[in-house]
Amino acid sequence: MAETADISAWIALFTGIYALGAAIGELRSPGSWAAMLEDFEKREGLRFVTGIVVLALGAAIYLVNPLRPDDWLSVVVTVLGGGMVIEGFILLGWGRSYLHFASKLLGLVNRIWAMMAAGIGIVLICVAMLRF
């Protein structure tokens, strides 16, 4: 079981692994993110389930992570959880328009977004590993 002091690091580690894995997938198969967003934009049920999952995961991160204002990683992880709650809410309420905007934004610099996600993933993994 994780100690309370390590929860932010564990969340950062798994978020970093997710970001790095998603980035590698996009870099190996360019256009997969755009195809995924197009699929989300077209399918009401998929958008709804995704909105619920993102909102629930964000709420879990927000509630489980101990907010310690003197610990910058704790603050970042809490903001990440809150941002996920907001994103899930937006997906449920304005999913089609939000995803249409996201697909237009993503289509402009697809490879750059993947590289940024990989960089963020590596940084999160390294920060988390330094905490253990």
TrEMBL record:
The superkingdom listed in its UniProt entry is: Bacteria
What transmembrane ranges does the database entry give?
7-25, 45-65, 72-92, 112-130
What does the UniProt keyword field contain?
A: Membrane, Transmembrane, Transmembrane helix
| Descriptive protein name | DUF2065 domain-containing protein
Species: Alteraurantiacibacter aestuarii
